[in-house]
Design a protein that fits this description.
Layout (H helix, E strand, L loop, with lengths): L1 H16 L7 H6 E8 L5 E3 H10 L8 E12 L2 E10 L2 E11 L7 E10 L3
Protein backbone atom coordinates (compact mmCIF):
# COMPACT_ATOMS: atom_id res chain seq x y z
CA UNK A 1 0.00 0.00 0.00
CA UNK A 2 2.79 2.49 0.90
CA UNK A 3 4.91 1.64 -2.13
CA UNK A 4 1.87 1.98 -4.39
CA UNK A 5 1.03 5.39 -2.94
CA UNK A 6 4.59 6.70 -3.25
CA UNK A 7 4.91 5.47 -6.83
CA UNK A 8 1.48 6.76 -7.87
CA UNK A 9 2.03 10.24 -6.40
CA UNK A 10 5.41 10.54 -8.11
CA UNK A 11 3.87 9.34 -11.38
CA UNK A 12 1.29 12.12 -10.95
CA UNK A 13 4.15 14.64 -10.51
CA UNK A 14 5.71 13.40 -13.77
CA UNK A 15 2.41 13.85 -15.58
CA UNK A 16 1.75 17.24 -13.98
CA UNK A 17 5.20 18.66 -14.67
CA UNK A 18 5.21 17.25 -18.19
CA UNK A 19 1.79 18.67 -19.05
CA UNK A 20 0.13 15.28 -19.44
CA UNK A 21 -2.60 16.18 -16.93
CA UNK A 22 -4.33 19.33 -15.79
CA UNK A 23 -6.21 17.59 -12.98
CA UNK A 24 -4.53 18.45 -9.69
CA UNK A 25 -7.02 16.42 -7.64
CA UNK A 26 -4.66 13.43 -7.19
CA UNK A 27 -2.19 15.49 -5.17
CA UNK A 28 -4.83 17.65 -3.55
CA UNK A 29 -6.58 14.60 -2.07
CA UNK A 30 -3.49 13.16 -0.37
CA UNK A 31 -1.62 16.18 1.01
CA UNK A 32 -2.84 16.75 4.56
CA UNK A 33 -3.93 20.31 5.43
CA UNK A 34 -0.86 20.72 7.68
CA UNK A 35 1.52 19.03 5.20
CA UNK A 36 5.10 20.32 5.15
CA UNK A 37 8.13 19.47 3.04
CA UNK A 38 11.80 20.18 3.59
CA UNK A 39 13.56 20.11 0.24
CA UNK A 40 17.09 18.79 -0.31
CA UNK A 41 18.42 22.35 -0.07
CA UNK A 42 16.94 22.75 3.40
CA UNK A 43 13.97 24.98 2.53
CA UNK A 44 10.73 24.27 4.42
CA UNK A 45 7.49 24.74 2.53
CA UNK A 46 3.92 24.48 3.71
CA UNK A 47 1.22 22.70 1.74
CA UNK A 48 0.01 26.04 0.41
CA UNK A 49 3.50 27.05 -0.75
CA UNK A 50 4.10 23.69 -2.42
CA UNK A 51 0.74 23.73 -4.19
CA UNK A 52 1.26 27.32 -5.36
CA UNK A 53 4.65 26.36 -6.80
CA UNK A 54 3.30 23.26 -8.51
CA UNK A 55 0.46 25.21 -10.10
CA UNK A 56 3.00 27.67 -11.54
CA UNK A 57 5.12 24.96 -13.21
CA UNK A 58 2.38 22.74 -14.61
CA UNK A 59 3.54 21.48 -18.03
CA UNK A 60 6.82 23.41 -17.89
CA UNK A 61 9.30 20.83 -16.60
CA UNK A 62 9.09 17.36 -18.13
CA UNK A 63 10.90 14.94 -15.85
CA UNK A 64 11.22 11.21 -15.28
CA UNK A 65 11.09 10.23 -11.60
CA UNK A 66 12.22 6.84 -10.39
CA UNK A 67 11.46 5.62 -6.86
CA UNK A 68 13.93 3.07 -5.50
CA UNK A 69 14.61 1.13 -2.30
CA UNK A 70 11.47 2.00 -0.35
CA UNK A 71 11.44 0.84 3.27
CA UNK A 72 8.32 1.29 5.33
CA UNK A 73 8.24 1.39 9.10
CA UNK A 74 4.79 1.10 10.71
CA UNK A 75 4.61 3.37 13.75
CA UNK A 76 1.20 2.34 15.10
CA UNK A 77 -2.13 4.19 15.21
CA UNK A 78 -2.21 4.26 11.39
CA UNK A 79 1.09 6.14 10.98
CA UNK A 80 3.91 4.89 8.77
CA UNK A 81 7.37 6.26 8.09
CA UNK A 82 8.64 5.58 4.57
CA UNK A 83 12.19 6.09 3.37
CA UNK A 84 13.00 5.88 -0.33
CA UNK A 85 15.35 7.15 -3.00
CA UNK A 86 13.98 9.48 -5.65
CA UNK A 87 16.00 9.83 -8.86
CA UNK A 88 15.55 12.59 -11.45
CA UNK A 89 17.94 13.53 -14.25
CA UNK A 90 20.76 11.44 -12.78
CA UNK A 91 20.51 13.11 -9.36
CA UNK A 92 19.29 11.21 -6.35
CA UNK A 93 17.75 12.26 -3.10
CA UNK A 94 16.68 10.24 -0.13
CA UNK A 95 13.23 11.07 1.11
CA UNK A 96 11.66 10.31 4.45
CA UNK A 97 7.88 10.63 4.47
CA UNK A 98 5.40 10.48 7.32
CA UNK A 99 2.05 9.15 6.17
CA UNK A 100 -1.17 8.41 8.02
CA UNK A 101 -4.07 6.13 7.23
CA UNK A 102 -7.10 7.99 5.89
CA UNK A 103 -9.94 5.90 4.56
CA UNK A 104 -11.10 8.28 1.80
CA UNK A 105 -7.61 8.95 0.38
CA UNK A 106 -6.22 7.12 -2.64
CA UNK A 107 -4.48 3.97 -1.38
CA UNK A 108 -5.86 4.79 2.10
CA UNK A 109 -2.98 7.16 3.00
CA UNK A 110 -2.38 10.89 3.35
CA UNK A 111 0.99 12.65 3.39
CA UNK A 112 1.87 14.63 6.52
CA UNK A 113 5.55 15.49 6.07
CA UNK A 114 8.49 14.85 3.72
CA UNK A 115 12.17 15.55 4.31
CA UNK A 116 14.58 15.21 1.36
CA UNK A 117 18.39 15.11 1.33
CA UNK A 118 20.68 14.95 -1.72
CA UNK A 119 22.52 11.68 -2.21
CA UNK A 120 26.21 11.80 -3.00
CA UNK A 121 26.72 10.72 -6.61
Amino acid sequence: MVLTEVEELHRFFEQWLGGETEDFARADRVLAPAFTIIGPGGNLRTREELVRGLLEVQGKRPVKIEVRNLVERPLGDGFVLATYEEWQDGKGRISTALLRAREDAPNGLEWLHVHETWLAT
